[in-house]
Amino acid sequence: MNKTLRKFCKNAKALSPVVASIILIAVTVAVSVVVAAWMGGMSIGLMGNAEQVSITNVDLTARDEIKITFTNTGGAASTISAFYINSVTVDLLDLDVTTIPKGTSATVVTVTYTTELITNYDFKVTTAKGNTVGSSALSPAA
User: Fold this and answer.
1) CA angle 97, 95, 79 (to 5 degrees)
2) Are residues 36 and 102 in the same domain?
3) What is the pLDDT of residues 35-46, one digit of tens each?
4) What are phi and psi of 46, to 5 degrees?
5) Which of 8, 58, 63, 120 is the most buried (most CB within 10 A)?
6) 100, 72 Cβ separation under 8 angstroms
7) Dihedral (C-alpha) 35, 38, 39, 43: value to the nearest 10 degrees?
8) Count of domains in the chain?
9) Are residues 113 and 86 in the same domain?
C-alpha cells in the first residue's frame, strides 16, 4: 500500500505554485473590475440628479426689499418647496422664481421688510428633494 501511494504521488500532475498564484490574481482583478463597474453605475444614477443649491448673495436694500440669489451647481434643476424668514413661512406665490435650472443663478425672492423692528434676518429654504440651505444678514439700519 505504501509503495502504491508513493507511486501515485510521483505520477500526479498538479499546477505549479506560480501558475496557481497568477490564476488567483486574475480572478481577483476580474471580480474587482465587475464590482467597480457596478458601483460606478449606481453612484452615477444616484448622484447624477443631485442638486447643489447655495445662497450666494443676500441684499437688504434701503428700499425695504430682500433679494436673495441662489446658485444651483448640481446636475439637476432645483425646486423651492418652502421659504422661511426668521422661521416665518413666506408664501411661495411671493417668490419671483421657484425653480432654479442646473448650473445657473437666480434671484428668487423680493419681499418687503421693516428695518425698525428687526436687525438680523435668518433665511432658510427647503427644496423639493428635502435639502435645506440657510443664511443670515443684518439689515442696513443695524
Assistant:
1) 50
2) no
3) 988 887 666 555
4) -80, -40
5) 58
6) yes
7) 170
8) 2
9) yes
Please name every residue paired with 133 in a beta bridge, in sequence order, or none if there are none. Answer: 125
DSSP state of 95: B
> Which of helix, strand or coil describes residue 21?
helix
39 plus 57 within the same structural domain: no
82: domain range?
53-138
Same domain, 39 and 24: yes
120 DSSP β-pair partners:
138
Say what the pTM is: 0.54
Q: Are residues 100 and 36 in the same domain?
A: no
- CA–CA distance, 134 with 139 (Å, rounded to integer): 16
Please determine, for residue 31, whether its predicted confidence score (pLDDT) is greater than 90: yes
- Residue whose C-alpha cell reads 467597480 in the numeric block: 36
